[in-house]
Write a structure and sequence with these properties.
This protein has one domain (2-194, 203-339). It has helices at residues 2-17, 19-23, 25-39, 45-53, 56-86, 89-107, 109-122, 127-144, 153-162, 168-191, 210-233, 235-241, 247-253, 262-269, 276-289, 298-307, 311-339. With 340 residues, it is mainly α. Helix 5 (56-86) packs parallel to helix 7 (109-122). InterPro entries: DUF1646 (IPR012443).
């Protein structure tokens, strides 16, 4: 058990503190996954084949969506410009947040984030407004992508670990997620000011090469494969230390998802032995707090990187908004318990 705890600490803190590991997170998690599975005594051909198969769907989705995005980038930019000129800006902001959030479970969180980058590069909002729009959209994308196994690695890992069908997560948290996405759209309409300046967020509007699409696809495959191995290896740790914790405690503990990738945390925490109530609390805690800071989720990392949004700029709006959202959801969870 000591070995698994040591690996868990490495997985949680090294990507956040060591730059070279942060840049090559997929390889690091794959190696840690093999180590965890070996120490946990579960590394066999069955698990390895499962780790090989689990990433296939999301990897294909990322590849196909990436190629389509490359081909349709120019007409998409023209369409965005026309729509933004045809409808009131508050409505446009709301639609951006809501539509990207809902579509992210189909087109993947990565592609949704790339579309978001194009949208804000077409608009000429002042920096503060653009940053708010990006953060709200990333919160929405993070929520929506959790509804299907192809949306993001977190949902892929949870569905796989629980051995559930494609629509399990939608049935489990669909209502909460859709309401949250709508709420974020309303917030965008109310609080993103349509103020325009000549300067905008720095973004080089160039076509993404096929090599980058293939590289990103390979990274996603290795990432999910590593998380599958990690999840299986950490099972003894989960059974000993996490299964007995109250769902409400787990909800707030998962605020660490703000600084740590939520898919990694899901692999370390989720177990088939948990009740649906506990899984729901863990999942909501992960996907909400994942939007607070840049490292918390893939859309945050992509958007901030391409648009040069600093960590402090993100935190200034992301943390208070995330905390308020966490409280609202927590009250809703408690209310649902009382009603049931």
């Amino acid at each position: 058990m000591t070995g698994l705890i040591f690996i868990l600490l490495l997985v949680l803190f090294l990507p956040f503190s060591v730059k070279i590991i942060e840049r090559h997170l997929e390889v690091f998690l794959f190696i840690m996954g093999i180590c965890a599975a070996y120490i946990g005594g579960v590394l066999d051909s069955t698990l390895f084949m499962k780790a090989v198969k689990d990433p296939i769907k999301i990897t294909l989705a990322v590849l196909v969506a990436g190629v389509l995005f490359k081909w349709l980038k120019v007409p998409l930019e023209k369409l965005i410009r026309r729509i933004s000129e045809a409808v009131p800006y508050p409505l446009f902001f709301a639609l951006v947040v809501i539509i990207l959030g809902l579509l992210s479970s189909i087109i993947t969180a990565i592609i949704a984030a790339l579309v978001l980058v194009i949208i804000v590069s077409v608009l000429r909002l002042e920096r503060a407004s653009e940053v708010k729009l990006v953060i709200l959209a990333c919160f929405s994308i993070g929520l929506g992508a959790a509804l299907t196994p192809i949306g993001e690695p977190l949902s892929t890992i949870i569905t796989s670990k629980l051995n559930e069908d494609t629509f399990f997560l939608f049935k489990l948290i669909g209502r909460e997620v859709i309401l949250g996405i709508l709420m974020m759209g309303i917030v965008a309409a109310l609080f993103v000011q349509p103020r325009f300046r000549k300067t905008k967020l720095s973004y080089v509007n160039e076509t993404e090469p096929y090599s980058e699409i293939i590289l990103r696809t390979g990274k996603i495959y290795l990432f999910v494969m590593g998380l599958t191995l990690l999840g299986a290896g950490f099972e003894p740790l989960i059974n000993t230390y996490i299964l007995g914790l109250d769902a409400n405690i787990l909800y707030w503990i998962n605020m660490i998802s703000a600084v740590l990738d939520n898919a990694t945390l899901a692999a370390a925490e989720i177990s088939p032995s948990m009740t649906h109530e506990t899984i729901k609390a863990i999942l909501l805690g992960l996907i909400i707090s994942g939007g607070m800071l840049v490292p918390g989720n893939i859309p945050n990392i992509i958007s901030s990187g391409k648009l040069n949004i600093t960590s402090s700029e993100w935190a200034k709006f992301g943390v208070p908004f995330g905390l308020i959202t966490m409280v609202i959801y927590f009250i809703a969870i408690l209310g649902n318990k009382l009603l049931n």
